[in-house]
Specification:
Layout lengths: L1 H7 E7 L6 H11 L4 E6 L6 H7 L3 E4 L3 H11 L4 E5 L3 E2 L4 H11 L2 E5 L2 E3 L5 H18 L10 E5 H6 L11 H12 L1 E4 L4 E3 L7 H15 L9 H4 L6
Parallel strand pairs: 1-2, 1-4, 2-3, 6-9, 7-10
Antiparallel strand pairs: 4-8, 5-10, 6-8
Length: about 240
């Protein structure tokens, strides 16, 4: 099973100035899957992100917005399955071994996961729990209105069939993506947590903006263009 996982899964990571996080993310992958393909789509980092990736023998390709970066990384992937992973997100040990057998047996085309903070940070930890609870509820009701885009497992063929991520969307592109994936086949939400940083939730104004974005999306409003600098998804803490 280990050899199958390493040969058939590519980890695709959009990045911009991720020197504080990218090395830990790469090492968490390599610890379990030393031969797995890792591709970083860099959007023009001015810190040591690219150098760190190259030192770890990670392929670096041109990035852009998260949607653009993910799509471009996928073009270089040589695997049956893709894991789209944010640069500040850590997968647990045995992640793929616990998922892929069921994923393949049920012929899922995509899967998402609950999230937890890299460190227990009080109220932010509670915010993650509330997010996970609501996400699980709406998913169970047949809705994909709320998912986390920091870690997504998809079948490469299905990614190509739906045309990848919509590069016109500046925020919530992962929700639009999963909506189209659900139309293309079966999707699942596994109760296996991945750990991600809390940097995007540190500013109260950003939390309010994110809530507003979700409401607009549920109401069918598409957010396109360079809006709020693509939600500052890769901004520094």
């Amino acid at each position: 099973m280990i050899a199958t996982v390493m040969n058939n899964v590519a980890f695709l990571i959009p990045a911009l100035n991720e020197s504080d996080y990218i090395l830990k993310t790469i090492k968490s992958i390599r610890a379990s899957y030393p031969l797995a393909q890792i591709i970083v789509a860099d959007a023009g980092s001015t810190d040591r992100t690219q150098q760190m990736c190259q030192q770890e023998n990670v392929l670096v390709v041109k990035g852009g917005s998260p949607a653009v970066g993910r799509n471009n990384a996928a073009r270089f992937a040589k695997a049956e399955f893709f894991v789209f992973l944010d640069a500040d997100t850590i997968i647990p040990s045995g992640f793929l071994e616990r998922i892929l057998p069921d994923f393949e047996a049920n012929r899922y085309v995509a899967a998402c996961f609950p999230i937890q903070p890299l460190k227990d940070m009080g109220q932010r930890h509670l915010a993650f729990q509330l997010f996970n609870g609501y996400s699980k509820l709406v998913f169970g009701l047949g809705s994909l209105s709320v998912i986390s885009g920091c870690c997504m497992l998809v079948k490469g063929e299905a990614h190509g069939n739906i045309g990848g991520f919509d590069e016109k969307l500046c925020v919530l592109e992962e929700i639009d993506y999963f909506k189209r994936m659900r139309a293309a086949g079966q999707v699942n939400r596994y109760d296996i947590h991945v750990s991600t940083s809390t940097r995007r939730h540190k500013k109260y104004s950003k939390c309010l903006a994110l809530v507003a974005y979700y409401i607009l999306h549920v109401c069918g409003v598409r957010l396109e263009g360079d809006f709020l600098n693509y939600w500052n998804r890769n901004s520094k803490p």
